[in-house]
Amino acid sequence: QVQVVESGGGVVQPGGSLTLSCTVSDPTFSSTVMGWFRQAPGKDREFVATIGANGGNTFYDDSVKGRFTISRDNAKNMVWLQMTTLKPEDTAVYYCGIAPGKLVAILEYEYDFWGQGTQVTVST
What we know:
mainly beta
């Protein structure tokens, strides 16, 4: 089973920035569609951003468009989520996922593998 590990979460003030990292243990999966989802307390897991196998086909949820940027480096088996202008409503556990065999993946069921998540808290 491929291992997916997120890191970089923490506490940040509104308007601040934070970058999350996702490392994949198997380079085969590091060249598949990847994505970030998040889950706030009492809510379902929701789509945040996704990126194609070669760094193209990036898509964002409207709630983060213009503020978050997803990127990847397949040579390092890594994906990042750069978050800027953070808002309290961005507070959630952020999960990195893998969607094998897809060109684009924005739905939770399209992802087969997940990390354990990293907590992001935006608060004064």
